[in-house]
């Protein structure tokens, strides 16, 4: 069964959240296999069976955005997981054995392609991955978690993002005249749905074709619908809140037009954030609803890509205040995919990743994998970085007022120091200034282990 680290693995997520939706059996529930050993080069210490490629790809993508050059072993592990036909499985324990095509994973393939594209220098692997995407597109234009099964909203959205990352127009990748954009439209709830569900994406249609809003599916599919990929670097800004679908009594109730897709989905996501206290909720049958950290992180990415960073601010701040325990205190220590999600959020929201809720996300994720080849040449002070206690400050970064206050104090202190030095200098011989005071050593964080 999938671990919490792999909330992006849509097969099981869809089964839990969409109720009647079919999903492939990923594990024998009567006899769980022994946890796989964690290989060298992999980020995180948890069992990689269901999320190895997923978490490695997110970690490499997020660290690349932080100007961290990863170890060759980390990149080599990811490229070594690729199958001969270009796809990636969730995890490939024996790379000498041929892949089972039925177990290859569109989600893992999508994020692996994006990671290698960001890193650069892996054109052959990326090209093979894109060919795998084209080969395994369903007849309706969608992509499934595993080939040969019905498509779903998450997998289709993630795959569209992978195509965009490589410069491939998803509109040109089609099967039977239907592209990934067309498939996303088929998963999106339109004017026929209740008002508070309009614009959402479903995981899969239920029996009979009915669609049910799925917050996690929406958080990931919206990024692709908005023309985005990871890392999100969009700086376009729409000052107004996202517009809900314009529905009128007796009006058209067909598919959501592609031009309105991302805006309508963003409006749904903002409604969910507002209703749940700046975050999404994870609801599973028979269980008490809990905060959905991964869905909230992808919501921030999607809203920023859609041009609504202002509406993403509250969710980013909530993650800064509450996300450390989720990312750093799992049963196996740091959850690499969770830490990467937070780092991607900080980058997209243009927040300081070294002081995200009082924690240094770059150090947290770097420490979860092999020692990198190099770190950024200039890092901020480690004051406020990751602490052993993991206590967060409750904010997402330095406030403007705090910075101004510190600046005033420095200015006043500097003025007093200059005044004192001038008085002291007046008592000394001309041309022989006072011995300069050694400058304080800057703790720039480069002594990380």
Automatic annotation (TrEMBL):
Residues 52-145 form the Squalene cyclase C-terminal domain. Keywords: Membrane, Metal-binding, Signal, Transmembrane, Transmembrane helix. It comes from the Bacteria. Residues 368-391 have a biased composition (Low complexity). Residues 1-27 form the signal peptide. Residues 367-396, 421-449 are annotated as: Disordered. This is Terpene cyclase/mutase family protein.
